[in-house]
Batch of 3 targets.
Target 1
Amino acid sequence: MIDRYNYVIANLLGRENVLFLKYEDMVLNYQEWLAKFLSVFIAPEPNVPTETQPKGLLALLEKLPLVQREGRSPSPTFSALYQELFEAHKADFQVEDEDVYRHKRQVLPGDHTRKLQPETIAILNEKFAEILNALGYEPVANSQIH
């Protein structure tokens, strides 16, 4: 598993044409996460000729079932698509209580701090330290373990 993370970090992280998004951001701030996600599909680059703009990404996005709507403009604006997706999915990251029998049991990040022993977390922090650091994560301190 560590080799897979290292491969991604070495070959993709920091590339101009790759966008890394975090699960935590999607759950805790869906509005901002969605804007970042859609920006790679729709937002044209300022001062870049149309012929050199990325082609096909918006067309690909429009083919997704969650985006296809009867009567929609064939080329929705960023604002229209953002608003539609935000309204349709803003409640997807809300779970009242944890239910181990549901597919969506618990959505908030940090669940491991409640379920793993502090010793286990310390071992994982040490083993994955370089990866956590490269991806912008801070190791969980013992004071954060519930």
Target 2
Amino acid sequence: MTIRFFQRTSLALCAGLVFWSGSAAAVTLITDDEAKRPNDPQVTATRGITRGPSILFEPPATGPAPHAPFDFRVHFEAHGGATVDPAHIRIIYLKMPNVDLTERLRPYITAEGINMPAAQIPSGEHLFKIEVEDSDGRNGEATFTVKAAK
């Protein structure tokens, strides 16, 4: 009985170490093919007073280099006692046609935001739109650009 417990625990620990060590590898946020698509000409700025969640992109301190991993971080802030619902978050890369990145980023999404370590993007300017809904059904939306040096 003790040996079986030890074997199971050791196996779980080894599997966890393999998973943890693999999570440090760079992950593609935007592929080269997606970046080559034309920009979405329908992009418009959104403004207005809203009680919906706030969305704040945290740009890398030095700006990402092309194909060099950087931490892709976005913070969500709900208002009036509401919480952000991770099931109602949508991330769109604004190209023609648009690229829905939601499922690609799903493992990195929480109610507090998006934290994707070691994200990779091609060089150039990349425009994103994030749509968020809180527990009271209020919506928030933000558009931002990530520039990777050429």
Target 3
Amino acid sequence: MEAAGPMTDEELAAIEELADAATPGPWHVRNLDDTYAMCLVAVATTPDTGRGERWPGFDHHEIVACTLIQEPRYADVADGRWDENARFIAEARQHVPRLIAEVRRLRGLLAEARHGHAEPAASPVGGHTAAQVKPEV
């Protein structure tokens, strides 16, 4: 998907489908070792133990993605941001569904404000009610 203009409802629904189809969260960054005791940075369904387990001392079924595998060297991004990428992937699992819900909630409030509907008393948006939120043009 290339960003060009505001996100459509169809694009938002497609992102939601991707999130719903993925392995359930939460996901965690794990620092492990491969068979040669070289760094392996992974995103997993279980938290990091801090012990840097070496293969086969961890369950490979818990691994969702890897951002660094040094031996054999086949997951090693050129900019060296293995930890940052792993954290982004892990955090996105939890945050993407929340962001989708927030976009839909805010769109609903904007629609209410545009159409002049009476607003519910308990629908604050960043300390503002829907009537106080100015739609972007």
